[in-house]
Amino acid sequence: MPHPDTESAAASARRATPALELSQLSFAYGARQVLHAVGFRVMPGEFAVLLGPNGAGKSTLFALVTRLFDARRPGSVRIFGAEMREAPGAALARLGVVFQQPTLDPDLSVIENLLYHGALHGLLRAEARRRAMHELARVELADRAGSTVRALSGGQRRRAEVARALLTRPSLLLLDEATTGLDLPSRMAVRRHVRELCATEGLAVLWATHLIEEVPEEARVIMLAAGRVQAEGSVPEVLAQAGAPDLPAAFARLTAAPAAG
Ligand SMILES: Nc1ncnc2c1ncn2[C@@H]1O[C@H](COP(=O)(O)OP(=O)(O)OP(=O)(O)O)[C@@H](O)[C@H]1O
């Protein structure tokens, strides 16, 4: 057995428990099969992009991972080793989510929204307030804590949603099209904040998008089309799997003619 000091970072990363591990995950709306035996992993500290065109199945996959949909589906969802069906409490406790549709109450202030979220998760009010102000400061919204959500710009609202998702200190953060409708500087600000959390705090992130330009160089890419994983790996690995010179070409190739079956 290698001495811990001499063991490579890559070797220890391979042994770590995945933050998210999906295996053979399938789902149908009635007779309509929309996910076909999907499987992939996201490791702690990893920024993984679930990249797929509209209708690929990204939101459906998120609904299964967050247990919004019936847990009787085939396949397994593990969060830090806890299977969602067998140990939903342990699995969900590690999870933070920013959904595609905004879910802040527009008539409450920013801080009231966050405190309400904290109360739902059993945080004491003083602790929730302390954490809320910390998270709002990190997304540069501390000075807007008392403003109603209605008075915020689109970019500020998304940043407030990220702050709220982090209130419970998740180890795995899911973001579904988190930057839809934002201008470029706002999109970059949200993505930069989340990438920093991966690098500095070991947060695992699954970022779903249909925008190729949202894929950072260092990301792991899971390309989903027609409910199937079409390619997976680092950007160079995905390019090799697609036989394409760049990501737009790989996306076009892999999403235009998904594998039949
Ligand atoms: N409630 C539903 N009932 C029936 N079909 C649905 C339902 N929700 C989604 N679908 C279908 O399932 C497929 C996958 O949709 P899903 O929303 O998961 O994809 P997506 O990749 O998130 O797309 P988008 O980027 O447009 O949100 C699509 O064909 C969609 O029409």
TrEMBL record:
One of its GO terms (molecular function) is ATP binding. Residues 20-251 form the ABC transporter domain. NCBIfam families: PQQ_ABC_ATP. SUPFAM superfamilies: P-loop containing nucleoside triphosphate hydrolases. It comes from Roseicella frigidaeris. Signal peptide: none annotated. This is ABC transporter ATP-binding protein. Keywords: ATP-binding, Nodulation, Nucleotide-binding, Transport. Belongs to the ABC transporter superfamily. InterPro entries: AAA+_ATPase, ABC_transporter-like_ATP-bd, ABC_transporter-like_CS, ABC_transporter_ATP-binding, ABC_transprt_ATP-bd_su_PQQ, P-loop_NTPase.
